[in-house]
Amino acid sequence: MSQPRFLCIGTHHKTGTVWMRRTFHRFATSRDIPVVRVNGKSTPADLPERGPALVVNWSSDIPTAILDLPETRALHMIRDPRDVLISGARYHLTAKTGNEKWLARPRDQWGGMNYQEKINSLTRPLDQMRFEMHHKHKATLREMLRWPAGHPHVADVKYEDMIEDADMARMRQIITDFDVEGFDVDGVLQSYWEQSLFGGQKDGRKGNVKDHVKSGKAAQWMRKLPLEIAVEYHAAYGDALIKLGYATDGTWIDQCRPAAQVYADDAANV
User: Which UniProt keywords apply (predicted)?
Assistant: First the structure.
């Protein structure tokens, strides 16, 4: 069997996208490996006929026909949806729309306001989070559920595991097992370390990383998800949490606190 030559990377909004993009883009650039951006309409014919390539989609909209290729190996990362909700609701209030063009697109459904204007028009943090939950977050959750989990060419990982991978053992094993042409283990790990919150980004985040990442810690929902939202979230998306492996039932709600306590703590820690 010939050596794999396509390394696919798939993430979702607020699931470690900046981390993975910077890690693998910078590595590929340093090795003159082409970066191919694909989507659901792409086909194997869109990939280079020879040599390695980094194949990416930051909504994990990678066609099964590409994943099925014997030459393909893929890394797919998800994150606890409750933390995705918290991160997204915060980020979309102030995100630079040049980086997130969809945020600036006027919508008839909101009287011509764009997403960022609409979420900012809601003065209560609870309402902002509720809006996020039923719009961008809902779309992101659907993407994670749509992914063909368990594909033999794919390493499915959770952000929570990788952010604790300070000795890089998990990433080393993945890249070693993949053995993709051009993606040498030591080189990938060096780039991975440089772009990780436990590595090169630990003592100071700049630019796009600083804009996107405020904490990066796992299980933030235990401290920051208001009970009022947790109850609604379980009713709407409890089954999704179970399917993605982040809950077994609805008892997680009991770990959440009322909004008054959550926001009082946030104000005290500013």
Answer: Transferase
Q: Torsions phi, psi of 222, nearest 5? A: -65, -25
Question: Buried b / exposed e across 221-242, counting CB within 10 Å, b at 16+?
Answer: bebbbbbbbbebbbeebeebbe
The dihedrals phi and psi of 57, each to the nearest 5 degrees, come to -155, 125
Query: ∠ CA 187-8-61 to the nearest 5 degrees?
Result: 150
pLDDT tens across 115-165, in order? 999 999 999 999 999 999 999 999 999 999 999 999 999 999 999 999 999
* Residue 164 near residue 80 (C-beta atoms within 8 A): no
Q: Report the alpha-carbon distance of residue 187 to residue 7 in Å, rounded.
A: 14
Fold of 6-79+148-194: Rossmann fold (3.40.50)
Per-domain boundaries in the chain: 6-79+148-194, 81-143+208-268
Which pair of tokens denotes residue 267? Answer: 């104000």
For residue 154, what is the enclosing H or E element?
A: strand 154-158
